[in-house]
Write a structure and sequence with these properties.
alpha/beta, single chain
Length: about 140
């Protein structure tokens, strides 16, 4: 299972994006189920702008089975806020925090992101250990 961050959605669904071709190639090579979170989608829709072709494509991508959704509950929201505070020296937004919490909950380390600088710093909690994220590139 692979978690998808905001950047790949924007790049995949906006042909004018500089990373469009690379993200499209990565997506076609993926053979595992994709998951994302509502905060990631919220950020993607904001960046694509509501009435754009990219936003239309994203609205179609989800119900067509392009990705499954993982939802934050009370406990996972509290964990996301904890992470945002933990990474306060280099601010972590809710979308990124939700991806890390989903990774912890779904027991995966694989993340499809363009945000290398941040996701190389983040760690996923596994019991008392913290493991690196396996970033798809």
């Amino acid at each position: 299972m692979i978690l998808v961050d905001t950047g790949p959605f924007v790049a995949l669904l906006d042909p004018q994006d500089a990373e469009h071709t690379r993200c499209k190639e990565i997506l076609h090579a993926i053979r595992e189920p994709l998951f994302t979170t509502i905060p990631v989608l919220t950020k993607a829709f904001y960046l694509l702008t509501p009435n754009s072709i990219g936003a239309d494509r994203l609205r179609d991508f989800i119900p067509d089975g392009g990705t499954s959704l993982w939802f934050l509950d009370q406990t996972s929201t509290a964990r996301a806020f904890e992470l945002m505070e933990q990474y306060g020296d280099h601010p972590m937004d809710l979308a990124d925090a939700s991806v890390i919490v989903a990774a912890e909950s779904l027991c995966t380390t694989k993340v499809f992101t363009l945000d290398l600088a941040d996701f190389q710093r983040y760690r996923i909690r596994r019991g008392h250990r913290h493991v690196r994220i396996d970033i798809l590139q």
